[in-house]
């Protein structure tokens, strides 16, 4: 392990905010967390796990210890007729894993291309995009539980995956250090084409039976056209979750706003786009001081250069209040506020 004191987190949050932590520990082997926990009594001390910081908003210096996994092995565990089980450690870059699967023609995560972050964070909010979620391929999650200082393995059913949620973001929040995950990928082509303009883009390129590369390339291209790259503009992707509301409530809104897009879920609720709500309150591309909503996708809050975490949070709260006033819907943040 490597320990750095009084460490700047600027490179470890994609908003690019220059807050510090008391100590930053690079964990080189999963087993080290056991001695780190003993040494620093992390069950009592303030601690925070950071991968690439692409889903956090720091609002002040972190008075405590930040833990960052760098162990990143990938192991093929079993090969069946139609599927392959792989185990991947927490410190592996998520997109590198997707590229690996695409190169090996293993289906199941190709639509999750270009999502920033490390593998260890992927189960936390059950990352999802373009009709795929990690829960669809995850078999197990291995983690260290700070409360009883034990390594544990949860089968997917125990992880309570849901839209942008899991047991690790709820009951076990701040209690676990995810060390690796097992994914079951398919050798059989399973293109998922239903989301947004994926079909249209493939049609434009005259692709009828998309290969796994066609899928990942097309989605990477769509994402690039909509989302700002954190290397150029500080952001953490969607700042809010898409609200899930009663279908009767959506129908009521539709009376005044017939263009409300509605996405069915499998019960009496529907999902509606937070981007649409934010656009309707007049906040698409809106700037306030050093913060703005991105002009192509208002669900993404951006740092115009010199924003503080507090300014970003204040702007986010303003959006929450306005959306509540106009639509009586309470937006929930997707980003973890620290
Ligand atoms: P961090 O931001 O470092 O951490 C996120 C949370 O997980 C924190 O609470 C942290 O404490 C916890 N955590 C991290 N690692 C561990 C670990 N090993 N053990 C326990 N807890 C841990 N997300 C999507 O789902 N879909 C998208 O399409 C998407 N697009 C994005 C586009 C952009 C441009 C950006 C900037 C973000 C996007 N995101 C998206 C959000 C983000 O990329 C994911 O949530 C990603 O999984 C976060 O990974 P990370 O390593 O950066 O996690
Ligand atoms: N929309 C508008 N105005 C806009 C942009 C979008 O009204 O300016 C409406 C449109 O109706 C559009 C709908 O919002 O059809 C959905 O937009 P988009 O396809 O861009 O997706 P999103 O719902 O805004 C979600 C995820 C993204 C993920 C994409 C693709 C959440 C909170 N966000 O965004 O994830 O990449 O779908 O699947 O679920 C993230 O979590 O950080 C993230 C980027």
- Average pLDDT confidence is 97
Largest sheet: 5 strands, antiparallel
Radius of gyration: 20 Å
Poorly predicted tracts of residues: none
Portion in helices:
10-25%
* Total of DSSP H or I helical runs spanning 4+ residues: 7
Structural class designation: alpha+beta
- Total domain units: 3
> Using DSSP, what is the number of strands?
20
Tell me the distance between the termini. 24 Å
Strand content: 25-35%
Shape: globular
Summarize the helix and strand pattern as letters: EEHEEEEEHEEEEEHHEEHEEHEEEHE
Query: Which ligands does the model contain, each kind named once?
Result: flavin-adenine dinucleotide, uridine-diphosphate-2(N-acetylglucosaminyl) butyric acid
CATH topology of the largest domain: Uridine Diphospho-n-acetylenolpyruvylglucosamine Reductase, domain 3
Q: Give the neighbour order of strands across the main sheet.
A: 6-7-12-10-11
CATH architecture of the largest domain: 2-Layer Sandwich
CATH top level class name of the largest domain = Alpha Beta
Oligomer: single chain
What would your notes on this structure say?
- With 338 residues, the protein is of the alpha+beta class.
- The chain has 3 domains: 2-69, Uridine Diphospho-n-acetylenolpyruvylglucosamine Reductase, domain 2 (2-Layer Sandwich); 74-186, Uridine Diphospho-n-acetylenolpyruvylglucosamine Reductase, domain 3; 234-337, Uridine Diphospho-n-acetylenolpyruvylglucosamine Reductase, domain 1 (Alpha-Beta Complex).
- The protein is 23% helix and 29% strand.
- It has helices spanning 32-40, 94-103, 198-204, 212-226, 247-256, 274-280, 309-327; strands spanning 2-8, 20-27, 47-49, 56-57, 62-69, 74-79, 83-89, 128-129, 132-133, 138-145, 150-155, 176-186, 234-238, 244-246, 263-264, 269-271, 287-288, 291-294, 297-303, 336-337.
- The longest helix is centred in the last third of the chain and has 19 residues, at 309-327.
- The radius of gyration is 20 Å and the shape is globular.
- Bound molecules: flavin-adenine dinucleotide (FAD) and uridine-diphosphate-2(N-acetylglucosaminyl) butyric acid.
